[in-house]
């Protein structure tokens, strides 16, 4: 059999638009059918996904199920459960000045949506947004990450089988293919990745006035002062940081605590790491690897000249970097440091940019108030994690800092909450999705107003204007 030619990027987008314009993605039954097809794609090929994720990132089967497949399946089930309610037209209020009249809002799909996924969660961060795209009645073009090649190839092979009508299409490749995709006109773009590439996506989208959802990460901080629950907090902190070898956009990036608490916290983290991944995490089937040599070299360079409290062992051939904890000297007196603590001018390289790997700095600060100042001194993070037994301290971070989300006494878990919006603020992202927030992101809520011709009260707003008529209109409004 002669292989079919691979369509060009412009042809792929044009074919998706033709399908959407034909109205084939709009019916509620068709939307539900595509969501069930996506569910089947995941459940019927679970071993293949586990194998691909192991090949790309050394993710164990358990971690692949927990952080990639099950999260996406939960999102699908949530959308199927609420789809008809979300799609139902809703009555809207009409001011007295327009009576008699009726109004309602009707949701309509945007059109063709581009989803560009990163390599660190190459299934979840590609297919989770797709759930909302399909539920809202759109067509989709998917761009999986070329840095997770096994997963990318698997998705490219499965999508045409489960979406034979072409409502979902895949474009594989690297920078040239992504660049060509961004030259096309889409009705929405979802991008997860670095702020640098996010700016490129936003500039390209501006050429077509295309709305965007950008999930960009950042330096997600942790505050710790819960001495009574030290070991529980350390275990949750270690799990949140070292899952997927720290390559998570919402992973704890650095910990702030008072100087006297650092030794006990380091000891508790060491015990937690040993409990979860063993005395030598290299031999654990549940500990991941760095995605490629370039990222490995970047991370190991950050360790030079640091005071390593836990870990630090590494092997470039295996792309292995042990769960590592380093301590960072106090940045200055409580009244404020002479130099910025975070950002490009920070004195320590680990505090200049998002680490995105299994290296956790512990930063000595004098108080929770000082920690809030440190957080506010640079870009707003994607997440903030607070481990404290003090309600006052919890309120302090909720009210005096800004972040995409705040989680108390845990890390990462808000990503799995399908009923909550997931997104950043400022430099950590634009827009949000998950659950009904995906529906809203990928739909247009169109007002429909009906003003009967009988009882033509609009004559009050039409010339000639008299003082009496204007006064009556003013009172009605």
Question: What can you see in these coordinates?
Answer:
The protein contains 15 helices and 20 strands. The model has no long low-confidence stretch (mean pLDDT 94). The protein has a seven-stranded mixed sheet, sandwiched between helices. Strands 5-4-3-6-7-18 form a six-stranded mixed sheet, sandwiched between helices. The chain is α/β, with parallel strands linked by helices and 477 residues long. It has helices spanning 9-21, 28-43, 46-57, 61-87, 124-135, 149-162, 175-183, 195-207, 230-242, 262-277, 293-302, 368-376, 391-400, 435-441, 467-476, and strands spanning 90-91, 102-109, 112-116, 139-143, 168-170, 188-192, 212-215, 221-224, 254-257, 307-310, 314-315, 320-321, 324-328, 359-364, 384-387, 406-408, 422-423, 429-430, 432-433, 443-450.
Describe the biggest sheet?
Answer: 7 strands, mixed
**Number of E-type strands:** 20
Strand order of the largest sheet: 10-13-14-9-8-15-16
Q: What's the helical proportion of residues?
A: 40-55%
Instruction: Calculate Rg over CA atoms.
Output: 26 Å
- Specify the overall morphology: globular
Number of helices: 15
Runs in which pLDDT lies below 50 for 5 or more consecutive residues are: none
Calculate the mean pLDDT score and round it. 94
Work out the strand percent: 15-25%
> What structural class do you assign from the helix and strand content?
alpha/beta
Distance between the termini: 71 Å
């Amino acid at each position: 059999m002669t292989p079919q030619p691979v369509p060009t990027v412009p042809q792929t987008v044009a074919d998706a638009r033709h399908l959407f314009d034909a109205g084939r993605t709009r019916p509620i039954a068709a939307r539900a059918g595509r969501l069930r097809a996506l569910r089947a794609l995941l459940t019927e090929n679970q071993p293949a996904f586990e194998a691909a994720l192991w090949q790309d990132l050394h993710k164990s089967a358990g971690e692949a199920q927990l952080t990639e497949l099950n999260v996406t399946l939960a999102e699908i089930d949530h959308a199927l459960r609420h789809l008809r309610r979300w799609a139902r037209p809703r009555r809207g209020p009409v001011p007295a000045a327009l009576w008699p009249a009726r109004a309602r809002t009707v949701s309509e799909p945007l059109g063709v949506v581009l989803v560009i996924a990163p390599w660190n969660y190459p299934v979840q961060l590609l297919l989770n947004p797709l759930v909302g795209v399909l539920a809202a009645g759109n067509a989709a073009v998917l761009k999986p990450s070329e840095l997770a090649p096994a997963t990318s190839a698997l998705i490219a092979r499965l999508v045409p089988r489960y979406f034979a009508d072409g409502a979902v299409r895949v474009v594989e490749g690297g920078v040239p293919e992504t660049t060509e995709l961004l030259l096309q006109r889409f009705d929405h773009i979802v991008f997860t990745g670095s702020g640098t590439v996010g700016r490129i996506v936003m500039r390209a989208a501006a050429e077509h006035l295309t709305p965007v959802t950008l999930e960009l990460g950042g330096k997600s901080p942790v505050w710790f002062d819960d001495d009574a629950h030290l070991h529980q907090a350390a275990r949750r902190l270690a799990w949140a940081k070292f899952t997927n070898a720290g390559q998570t956009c919402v992973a704890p990036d650095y910990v702030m605590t008072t100087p006297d608490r650092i030794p006990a916290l380091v000891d508790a983290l060491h015990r937690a790491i040993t409990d979860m991944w063993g005395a030598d995490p290299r031999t654990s089937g549940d500990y991941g690897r760095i995605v490629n040599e370039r990222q490995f070299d970047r991370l190991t360079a950050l360790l030079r000249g640091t005071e390593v409290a836990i870990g630090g062992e590494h092997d470039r051939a295996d792309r292995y970097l042990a769960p590592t904890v380093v301590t960072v000297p106090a940045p200055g007196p409580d009244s404020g440091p002479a130099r910025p603590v975070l950002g490009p001018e920070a004195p320590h390289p680990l505090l200049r940019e998002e680490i995105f790997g299994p290296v956790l700095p512990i930063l000595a600060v004098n108080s929770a108030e000082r920690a809030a100042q440190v957080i506010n001194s640079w870009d707003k993070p994607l997440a903030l994690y607070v481990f404290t037994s003090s309600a006052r301290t919890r309120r302090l971070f909720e009210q005096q800092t800004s972040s995409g989300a705040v989680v108390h006494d845990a890390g990462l878990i808000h990503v799995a909450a399908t009923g909550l919006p997931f997104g950043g603020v400022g430099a950590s992202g634009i827009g949000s999705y998950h659950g009904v927030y995906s529906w809203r992101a990928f739909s247009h809520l169109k007002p429909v107003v009906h003003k009967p011709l009988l009882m033509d009260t609009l004559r009050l707003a039409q010339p000639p204007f008299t003082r009496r008529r204007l006064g009556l209109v003013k009172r009605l409004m």
